[in-house]
Amino acid sequence: MSTLAELRATVATLHAELTRYNLVSWTAGNVSARVPGEDLMVIKPSGVSYDDLGPDTMVVTDLHGELVEGALAPSSDTAAHAYVYRHMPEVGGVAHTHSPYATAWAARGEPIPCVLTMIADEFGGDIPVGPFALIGDDSIGRGIVETLRDSRSPAVLMAGHGPFTVGKDARAAVKAAVMLEDVARTVHFAHQLGTPHVIDKAHVDRLYARYQNVYGQ
Amino acid sequence: MSTLAELRATVATLHAELTRYNLVSWTAGNVSARVPGEDLMVIKPSGVSYDDLGPDTMVVTDLHGELVEGALAPSSDTAAHAYVYRHMPEVGGVAHTHSPYATAWAARGEPIPCVLTMIADEFGGDIPVGPFALIGDDSIGRGIVETLRDSRSPAVLMAGHGPFTVGKDARAAVKAAVMLEDVARTVHFAHQLGTPHVIDKAHVDRLYARYQNVYGQ
Amino acid sequence: MSTLAELRATVATLHAELTRYNLVSWTAGNVSARVPGEDLMVIKPSGVSYDDLGPDTMVVTDLHGELVEGALAPSSDTAAHAYVYRHMPEVGGVAHTHSPYATAWAARGEPIPCVLTMIADEFGGDIPVGPFALIGDDSIGRGIVETLRDSRSPAVLMAGHGPFTVGKDARAAVKAAVMLEDVARTVHFAHQLGTPHVIDKAHVDRLYARYQNVYGQ
Amino acid sequence: MSTLAELRATVATLHAELTRYNLVSWTAGNVSARVPGEDLMVIKPSGVSYDDLGPDTMVVTDLHGELVEGALAPSSDTAAHAYVYRHMPEVGGVAHTHSPYATAWAARGEPIPCVLTMIADEFGGDIPVGPFALIGDDSIGRGIVETLRDSRSPAVLMAGHGPFTVGKDARAAVKAAVMLEDVARTVHFAHQLGTPHVIDKAHVDRLYARYQNVYGQ
C-alpha cells in the first residue's frame, strides 16, 4: 500500500503525462489519488504551473475537499474529485483535463461512438456525455457519478466543459485521459470525411473482456 | 515592484511559453511589459530568434515606441503595444501571436462563441474581433483598445491578422494568449462536426465572477 | 547479420521513433524483428511504457508467439506479428500503431488514394484496407497477409483497428509506419477542402521503381 | 563571405529547423546553399537521418548535381536545387519539404490565397502552384523556376508533390519553408469553417514593401 509520501510523489509525477500528451494548457487540468484506507485524497494545488509541481506542492484534503495538509489551496475542481471518491468506492484516482478533441465532443454534447477496437478495449462501448453543470457545489461530481454508473467507460464528457476520467488508482485515471483524447481525435478525423462503421455489440463485449483480463503484465 | 532588470528577465523568459505552446513560428510573436510607475515598456527586439532571447537582448522603449535602452531595434509591433499602454492604464502586459486556430477565426472575422466553461472563466463571454488595420501608424493599437473596451475579454482577434492579449502583467497576457489558442482550437473542432450549445449569459456571468475571484493561490 | 543482443537493442530503440512521431499513446503500439536464420522474433512486452524499454525488457518468442526468452509477457499483438513472419518470408520487421490519421482511414474502411509522389515512392499505389478482425486467433495476421499480397504497399489499414506495416527489417517497417501517418494526414487535409488529383498509374510505376532503386545510400 | 566549412555547418544546422517545426518525416526534406562566388552548392546527403547530419556528412556538388566533395550520395532532389541555382542567380538557398498543410494545398493544385497580413508580408500575394513534374530530369527545377518568376513569393507548391522555397541564403529559404507551413495551416483552418476575406491588392503591396524593408535588425 502506498504511503502518503509516495502518493504525493506519484500524483505530482503523473501530471507530467498530461503535458506530455498535450492534454492541458497552462494550469488547466488536475489529477488526484485516494489515500488507501483513509478518507483522504492527494490533489494538485490550484493555479500552479506543471513545471512547479513536486511531492511538496501537492495538497491533501478530506473527501469533502477540506484542506488537511499542505501550504497551498487545492484545485478548484476538488469538490468534484471528492464527490467521486465518496460515491464510487472502487475508484482510487481521478483525472480532469480540457483535452481539445474530447472537449469538442463535450461541447457538442455528443458521445464518442465505439468505432475502434481501442474504444471497445478501453471504454467498453460509447464514451458517454454528462450533464452541463456549474462549478461551486456538488453538481459536477453528481453528474460524473450518475453518468459513469450507467456505463463501463472510465471517462465521461461533461457537456460544455471537458472530460473526467477515473481508475483503480491515479495512474489508471491518467491512462484513461490519455487514451480518451487519442480516440476522441481519431474518431473526429474519421467523421470529418465520412461515417465510420460502429462495432457490433457482441464484438465490443469480447474485446472489452479480453483487454481487461489479458493485456499488460 | 519589479526592477527593470527583473522585468527584462521576466519578459525574455515568457517568450518560451509562446514556443512551448506552438503559438509562434520563427520570430513572429512578441511579449511586452509596462515598467511599473514609469512611461516605459520592455519588449522583444525585431526579428530575433526565440533561442537568442535573454535579459540583455530585450529592449526598453517609451510609450510611443521610441528606443530608450538596448542595442537592437524593437519589435515591429511596438507601436501597437505602446498604444495599448497609453490608453489602458490597467494593462501591465501585452502579447501578440499568430497562433493558428485563433488566427483562423481572425481570418474569417468571426468571434469565438462562448460554448465552453473555460471561455466563460477566462474571457467572460465571446472573444471579439477587431478591425482589419495596417501596420505603420496607430490603427492596430486603436483597433485593439476600442474592441477590448466593449468586452470583458483580455483577447482580441484582429481581422486578417491575429490575436493580441492583455493582462495586469506580462505573465497574465501570455496566459491569455495560451488559453485563447486552446479554446480557439477546441471550438474549431466542435464546429467541424456540428454546432455546440452556447452557454446562457447568466451562467457565463457566474463562472466569470467565480474564476476571477476564487481560482489560483 | 544481427546477433540477438543487437536485435534486442535495435528493436527497443526503434520504439522511440513511434513516440517521436506521435504514432502511439501510452503503450499502444509495438515493433518486432525476425531473428535472421531462426524461427524466432524479438518483440515489445505487453503494456510496458515506452520510457521503460531497453534491450533487456524486449522478449523473444517463436513464430507461433510462444515465449522463448524474457521475463515479461509479449505484446498482445504477438500472434499477428508471428503470422506475418510465418507467411511472408521476405519480411524481417513488423510495426503496429494506432496513429490517428491512418486509423481514421481504417475506421472508415477507406484506402488512402495515391495522390502524392511520396505515396507512389513509398507505397507504390493506394494504401489498402484489410478486414475487420478480432484479436485472439489468426484473424488479424491472416487479414494482413492476404491484403499485402495483392499490393506493393508495405502498409495495411486494418478496418476499425489501425495500421500494420512490414519491411525487410524492423527499421524499414518503422519507416513505413512513419511515412504512412505522414501521407494519411496530408491526404486527409487535402480531402477536407476538395479532391486531390490521383496520379496516373504509369507515373506511379516510374516513381516507385526509381525510389526503390535510387533513393538513399 | 562564408567559407565552405562554415557553409557545411550552417546547412547541417538548418535541417534542425525542419524537424523543430515538424516539416519533415524520417528523411524526406532537404536544404542546400549556393557556395558564394563558385558554381557549387552544399546539400543534404540522400536518405540520411536528421539525427546524423553534421558538417562532415553534407555533400558538395556542382550546379549540375555532380558530386565534388563528400563520401555520400547527394539528395535525390539535387537536380531540382541545381536547376534553381543555375537559373536564378539571386537565390543563395533552397529548401524542400513535404510539410503537411502546404502539401495538402499542393495535392489539390490550389494556390494559398492572401488572406493574412503574414502572407502579404512574407509572400507578397497568393502562394503559387507549380506543375506536376516527375523526378529524374529537369522537370521539377524548371517548374519551380517558371512559377517563381511570375511571383513575389519565395515558395512554390509543386502539384501532387510538395513545396520548394528559395531565399538569398539557406536560412532565408528555411524561414520561408517554416512560414509557408504556418500560413498553409492557418488558411486551411480558416477555410474549414467559412471563407476568409482576401486582402486588397493595394494593402498587400504596402504590407510587402514595409516588411521587406523594415522588419528585423
From TrEMBL, chains A, B, C, D:
Keyword Coiled coil included in the entry's annotation: no
Pfam families: Aldolase_II
Enzyme class name: isomerase
Protein name as it appears in the record: L-ribulose-5-phosphate 4-epimerase
Similarity remark: Belongs to the aldolase class II family. AraD/FucA subfamily.
Molecular function via GO: aldehyde-lyase activity; L-ribulose-phosphate 4-epimerase activity; metal ion binding
Keywords: Metal-binding, Zinc
EC identifiers of the protein: 5.1.3.4
SUPFAM superfamilies in UniProt: AraD/HMP-PK domain-like (SSF53639)
GO biological process: pentose catabolic process
Class II aldolase/adducin N-terminal domain sequence ranges: 9-188
Cofactors named for this entry: Zn(2+)
Keyword field contains Signal: no
Domain of life of the source: Bacteria
Gene3D superfamilies associated with the record: Class II aldolase/adducin N-terminal domain
GO cellular component term of the entry, any: cytosol
Source organism (scientific name): Actinophytocola oryzae
Catalytic activity: L-ribulose 5-phosphate = D-xylulose 5-phosphate
